[in-house]
Amino acid sequence: MSSDRPFEIQRIDHVVLRVQDLPRAVAFYRDVLGCTVARERPSLGMVHLHAGASMIDLIGIDGKLGKPGGAAAGAEGRNLEHVCLRVEPFDVEQLRAHLQTHGVALSGKPESHFGAEGDGVSVYLRDPDGNGVELKGPASDCGCS
């Protein structure tokens, strides 16, 4: 720990995504990716979802918290590049089959990417608002790209 900083970052606590259709986004993160609803805050237009040890907060663009952000994410602009979710077990074919049952396609092919645990294979997809989601397996020495 740096002597001039009285803290160390432990992990990402949560990310907040602005979404066009809050119920649709909740259904995607809950039903497709397996997040669980932790708390709903209708007065703010917000739903908090457990994503493992972290959280994904969804706010509707028409709600109290979402309106100040301006236009919704779309083909010409997004809320973020992507959020990476570490998943286990990581079986690309099982992931692909599960996503297909929900009408979700993978973007590109599985490749090795660097993350918090080191290099490991991951796949990418888009949520209903076009935000990128990376599903990442454990670190490995596969030597893929």
Summarize this structure as a short list of keywords or feature phrases.
145 residues; single chain; VOC_core; 14% helix; 2,3-Dihydroxybiphenyl 1,2-Dioxygenase, domain 1; four-stranded mixed sheet; VOC family protein; 8 strands; 2 helices; mainly beta
Strands in their spatial order, largest beta sheet: 1-4-3-2
User: What's the end-to-end separation, in Å?
Assistant: 33 Å
By CATH, the architecture is named: Roll
Order of helices and strands: EHEEEEHEEE
Based on CA atoms alone, the radius of gyration comes out at 16 Å
CATH fold assignment: 2,3-Dihydroxybiphenyl 1,2-Dioxygenase, domain 1
Overall geometric form: globular
- What's the number of helices? 2
The number of E-state strands comes to 8
- Tell me the CATH superfamily: 2,3-Dihydroxybiphenyl 1,2-Dioxygenase, domain 1
Compute the number of structural domains.
Answer: 1
What structural category arises from helix and sheet content? mainly beta
CATH class: Alpha Beta
Strand content: 35-45%
Element layout with pairings:
Blueprint: E1 14-19, H1 22-32, E2 36-41, E3 46-51, E4 54-60, E5 82-86, H2 92-101, E6 107-115, E7 118-126, E8 132-139
Parallel strand pairs: 1-4, 5-8
Antiparallel strand pairs: 2-3, 3-4, 6-7, 7-8
InterPro entries: Glyas_Bleomycin-R_OHBP_Dase (IPR029068), Glyas_Fos-R_dOase_dom (IPR004360), GlyoxalaseI/FosfomycinResist (IPR050383), VOC_core (IPR037523)
Protein name: VOC family protein
Organism: Stenotrophomonas nematodicola
